[in-house]
Amino acid sequence: MNSASKLSYPQEFSSYLREIKLEGEAFFEVKKNAQKPFIVNANNLDIKVLGTKFNVKSYSNEKNIETTLFSGKVSVELKNAENKTIKKAILIQFYEEFKQ
Predict the structure, then answer these.
(1) How would you classify the pairing of strands 38-42 and 18-30?
(2) In this structure, is residue 74 part of a structural domain?
(3) How far is the C-alpha of 91 from the C-alpha of 75, rounded, in Å?
(4) Domain that holds residue 34
């Protein structure tokens, strides 16, 4: 987590979902679990982890929210005021570094 960042999460995750809230910036490394997805809520953006390493930057005093994918795959959903999805994208790592 970066300075001035806040992470909120329940004392225990539910049996079907791992969901947290982020204000600020944090790096995540999450193992895939199709039975219990991991979701980061960052303002009006939901980032669903599909087994990956990624960074989220979402400060309340900044206009933009950034997600940087380091490996794996994430689903990103933009929500409106009624919490309905208005845009959705899937980010996939397509570059693989080769050792020589």
Answers:
(1) parallel
(2) yes
(3) 6
(4) 6-92
End-to-end CA distance of the chain: 33
Q: Report the predicted TM-score, pTM, of the whole model to 2 decimal places.
A: 0.78
- pLDDT above 90: residue 43: no
Q: List residues bridging with 8 in a β-sheet.
A: 21
How is residue 58 written in tokens?
A: 């979402």
Helix H segments across the chain? none
Task: Give the CATH number, domain containing residue 62.
Answer: 2.60.120.1440
Q: Identify the pLDDT of residue 57.
A: 93
The structure tokens listed for 14 are 């539910």
Cα 94 to Cα 74: distance, rounded to the nearest angstrom: 13
Which residue from 69, 39, 73, 72 is spatially nearest to 54, judged by alpha carbons?
69
